[in-house]
Design brief:
By secondary structure, the chain is of the alpha+beta class. Helix content is 45%, strand content 17%.
Length: 159
């Protein structure tokens, strides 16, 4: 009989108490989603803008290295002698493959050759192309990509 008495004297939480705790946690979670819900999109936009600026600067600096007497730049992907704007673009894409990833599609490299920045599927991709003697760097940093304010483009003179 003693065993039965000790088992009955144990106390635990009632089902009602557990349900109240679960409801409170649910309310707090819903509040957190409202407060922090849009921060992921803002982080993607900021990462894309930062990467665009870094890649534009990197491209200019690496081409300047060739002008200053380097034999190879862009992680040895660009041979300076005989380079053209097209070979610079190809070397840049190769150097950045799997190094700079698209914030909107984390399994894809951000820096690509050609392509557009006009549809929402282009968001986060840094597109490189050649126009005359310039290397064109363009990006859609904010969806919808069809809006001019959500895109950035920069012409970098070939050196």
């Amino acid at each position: 009989m003693e065993k039965i008495g000790t088992i009955k004297s144990r106390k635990g939480f009632s089902l009602m108490e557990l349900m109240i705790v679960i409801v409170i946690i649910g309310i707090l979670s819903a509040g957190a989603l409202v407060i922090f819900g849009g921060k992921g999109e803002q982080a993607k936009q900021a990462a894309t803008k930062g990467m665009f600026n870094e890649m534009s600067t990197y491209l200019g600096v690496e081409m300047m290295g060739c002008s200053m007497g380097e034999t190879k730049t862009m992680n040895d992907n660009l041979t300076c002698s005989g380079r053209t704007a097209a070979t610079v673009v190809t070397a840049m894409v190769t150097a950045m493959t799997n190094d700079q990833m698209n914030p909107y599609e984390l399994d894809k490299s951000a820096v690509t050759s050609g392509g557009n920045n006009t549809s929402d599927s282009d968001a986060g991709f840094i597109r490189l192309s050649v126009s005359g003697t310039n290397i064109v760097v363009k990006v859609c940093h904010t969806k919808p990509c069809g809006t001019a304010a959500n895109k950035t483009e920069k012409n970098i003179p070939f050196q």
